[in-house]
Amino acid sequence: MLEKNSNISYCEYFQVFLSNKTNLFLALSLVFISIIAYPLILHHTSHPSMIYHIGVHIASFDVALFLTLISVLSFKKTKSRRVLLTSLSFGTLLVVEFSYLLQSSNVLGEYHLPYIGVEAPHILLLFMLVFFAVGVARVEKR
Question: Region 109-113: what's the mean pLDDT?
Answer without folding.
Answer: 73
